[in-house]
Specification:
Number of domains: 1
Helix content: 55-70%
Shape: globular
Number of helices: 6
Distance between the termini: 46 Å
Structural class: mainly alpha
Radius of gyration: 18 Å
Strand order of the largest sheet: 1-2
């Protein structure tokens, strides 16, 4: 039998990290945060979609790092919100701490991006014409 703490961890995964001698908690975005962030993350989702559409690219860590590097200011804002810190705090992190934070952020919030990516891909699928007759199988 699962406990309510286990259920909560599934609903809202978190990762605690030691960054600069203090513990920070990387949190998954809530539904309402996602709604509020939709315009901000749209360019990232668009670029993810373009990477997936390319036949010679997979979303590996190198491609992901490059893609996120193209959206540095947005990523700083998103990571700051995820750890409930100011963007200036994230921007001032040394490289090692920043990389660990980014990896934890992606681990906790990758489903957030993937759900929006799926919605984008589905919304761009050609829809059958309502007047087209269906063919029996």
């Amino acid at each position: 039998m699962s406990s309510s703490a286990d259920d909560l961890a599934v609903l809202h995964p978190e990762i605690d990290l030691d960054i600069g001698g203090e513990t920070v908690t990387v949190r998954e975005f809530s539904f309402i945060q996602g709604v509020k962030l939709s315009a901000l993350v749209a360019p990232i989702v668009s670029d993810l979609s373009a990477v997936l559409a390319s036949e010679d690219e997979d979303i590996d860590l190198g491609v992901l790092g490059e893609l996120m590097g193209n959206h540095t200011e947005t990523m700083i804002k998103l990571m700051a919100q995820s750890v409930r810190r100011k963007p200036e705090w994230v921007a001032a992190l040394p490289d090692g701490d920043g990389q660990r934070l980014f990896m934890a952020f992606w681990e906790v919030n990758s489903d957030f991006f993937m759900r929006r990516l799926v919605m984008t891909l589905v919304s761009h699928q050609p829809q059958p014409s309502p007047s087209a007759p269906s063919t029996p199988h």
